[in-house]
Amino acid sequence: MAAPFKYSEYYLSRKFSQEMGVGLKDYIRRQRLEQAKALLKDTDLEICEVSDRLRFCSPSYFSEQFKSEYGVSPTQL
User: Fold this and answer.
1) Containing domain of residue 58, as a range?
2) In total, how many domains does the chain have?
């Protein structure tokens, strides 16, 4: 992500954190989880399909991250 702006990864991450008040990795993770929540509510996709579509490393990791963020498992939506 940093290359098009000709920044180092460290500088981009630091600058993003200063401007947004949250780390770049956390921001991306939260955005992916928001997309997942919308897909689970608005479509008939299975958890494993949502996990694959949003490029989580596994459905179990996706479920763990989802529960950590929202306090419920993806199946409880």
Assistant:
1) 43-77
2) 1
